[in-house]
Predict the structure.
Amino acid sequence: MSKPLPTAVSALLADRADAIAEAARELAAFGWTPATSSNFSMRIDDQLAAITISGRDKGRLGRDDIMVIDMNGKAVGSEYRPSAETGLHTQVYRRFPDANVVLHTHSRTQSVASRLFAAEGRVRLEGWELQKAIAGHTTHDSTLDIPVFPNTQHMPELEARVDAWIDAGKPLYAYLINGHGIYTWGHDMAEARRHLEALEFLLGCELDLRRLSP
Ligand SMILES: CSC[C@@H](O)[C@@H](O)C(=O)COP(=O)(O)O
Ligand SMILES: [Zn+2]
């Protein structure tokens, strides 16, 4: 049996769970979380985060569908299994101390773009006004690379690729996983949502350009 959560942590979990459930309902309504796919988390403090329980329908989350993990991805105060991709969430919290929310979705646009751009290893975004929706970007006149990493069921392998990108000094705001979906994050839910919506739009534009260009 797991130890019950301290009251203060329970209150913070309830707060984070409500925010995650609300955002997830909206993202599911866009069709970005099909068939129980996708996962979401919010930092609680330096040591803990709230994350979706594995396998739950992300469009119908309630407080009981979100649990606490530590920064090693271990369940805290729960017997449930956290998201199968928990390691990718805790990695963001470890590598980006300003990130407090991580969103992962599986939209059709994200999935198709990940396949189409996998061979290049990245989607290069240039000249789009909406690049300014990404934190720190003030002009369309810049280059924004979204890496595409190979898919694997072995999270440490993916984590190593993400670490290698960051350790090479390359900016990272989001990444695609080939044939899978997107990960992005933000300082708060509003920023993470803005990143996700902007990238969905920009990836859709890139797909249209490929489709329409002779
Ligand atoms: C239902 S297939 C999608 C899963 O394999 C996975 O990629 C996913 O996004 C959801 O996994 P979960 O363990 O529910 O967080
Ligand atoms: Zn996934």
Q: What stands out?
A: The helical segments are 7-29, 86-95, 108-116, 155-167, 189-212. Residues 7-212 form a domain with the L-fuculose-1-phosphate Aldolase fold (CATH 3.40.225.10). Strands lie at 39-43, 48-52, 66-70, 75-76, 101-105, 122-126, 143-149, 174-177, 181-186. The chain has a mean pLDDT of 98.
